[in-house]
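batch job 7 of whatever, protein = Sigma-70 family RNA polymerase sigma factor
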Amino acid sequence: MQAQMDDLGPDLAACARGDRNGLKRIFDGEAGRLIAIAERIVRRRDLAEEVVQEAFLRIWTSAHQYTPERGSARGWITAIVRNRALNLLRDGKREDLVADDRLEALLDTDQFEKIMASWHRLDQDSRLRDCLGALDETKRRGILMAYVGGYSHGEIAGRLRVPLGTTKSWIRRGLTALRECMA
């Protein structure tokens, strides 16, 4: 049974005191969910397990930094896993993350089709459709991944294997062009 948000705070406090049972309770309740989150980002189970292992080391050594006033314990733990997964994707030394550089291969095929279908479902006479169509493909896909697919800039950067700043610039310039076109 997964630990509830309120139940993780005391376990983090136990970790901060050096009580390994606190870490075990967190692991028993959250590891499956955390692996699923990491796997969604890195797209490989073995790497997701590595991410979660590293995250639990971080949780153990940094539990004293958690403060309930800044958010839930579950959110704090999830952020550590998510950040570890994104760092792994951005690490240029990991050439084996993807076999193909094409965007379609980097995204879950169903997710990619849903993202692109949302654009194609727009009314043929829609100003938004015309304006999105006028953008270059990179900017259009970045905007659709962010605003339709719900990917963060970091996730998009990791999946496209480009620097985070580049991704942010593509999306920012694409949104500027989209606003100008829609005006």
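notes: The mean pLDDT is 80.
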